[in-house]
Structures are given as C-alpha cells and as structure tokens.
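hiii, so i know i said id send this last week but things got crazy w the move. better late than never?? heres the sequnce for the chain we talked about at the cafe, plus the structure i predicted for it. fair warning i was half asleep when i ran it
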Amino acid sequence: MRHFAFLFLAALFPGVLSAQAGCPANVKAIPFHKVDKHQMVVAVSINNSGPYDFLLDTGTQMTVVDFELAADLNLKSTGNATVSGASLHGPAVYARLDRLEVGGHASSNQNVLLYNMKSVQQDGFAIRGLLGEDFLSGYDVLIDKAQNILCIDDTGAMLGSMRGEHVQAASHGGR
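okay and structure toks below
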C-alpha cells in the first residue's frame, strides 16, 4: 500500500502551481467545486452508479454514505456503529461497496459508514457523502485550490516530480 501523502504546495506557495495548468507529471486532473469558500465537493461513483457529490474530507477516517443514497443503491448493513466527529454524531451502520471510484481511481470492497446526513444537508451542503482518508490513503494527493482540481496518483510520478516540502498526513489505519 502506498503511503498517504498530501502535497499542499498550492496552499504553501500559491505562485508555484498557478503558472502550471493541470496536475504535475501528466496526472489526470479531477475537478471539484467549492462550497462555503473552503469545502471541496468531488464526483464519486459507487458500484458503477453515479456520480454523486461527496465532500472531500481529509479529516474523516472512513468514507460516509448518506442513508438515502444507500437505500437507493440497495446497500446492505454489515454491522452497527456510532459516529462522533466535528459535524456527525449518532448511530450509523457499516456497509461494504463493491466499487468506489473517483476520477478513474477505484477501490474494491471498500468499507464505508452509512449515516443520516440530513442535518449536514440542511446546513446548505447538497452532498451524498464524505470521501474520507480510507480511500485517499492509497494515493499521493495534491489539492490545488487555485485551479479547483484534485490530483490523485498511484504511480509515484507526481511525488517524484514535485519540489518543495511534502507533508505526510497521519494515517489512522487503511483499507
């Protein structure tokens, strides 16, 4: 499994990437849109269905799928859980996805949490879930807020082509 590296060069050195179009090392750029100026929403496909808007949440250990979407996709519970975080609190259930995909990068047999996200949606976030560290940890990831793109690389090419400080994100486990 690859290490979990986020390259925050765009945030640390705004001029470094602004002259460069797209992702480094010819990695495919995945567009995202911002909500509330800072929150990033990315298109996620589940079990070859979608795409659905998910909030990119580097602080969430496990990907979360809204109960309503889970029902639409006929996802089956594999056990009970309790969620306690900054914006999510309460009962949840575990489920397993056959496939979770973002911009052509896929994970098979991905464990997720199913959670009632109505309170988050009522706060103005029209999202169907949270894309968490469990998916992202298998890749080198660059978030370029200036261009509203996400760069995901599983080859090591992007990491090798970047100059500057690389920030190793803490890992709480993996998939």
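btw Confidence is low (pLDDT under 50) at residues 1-20. thought thatd interest u
miss u guys!!
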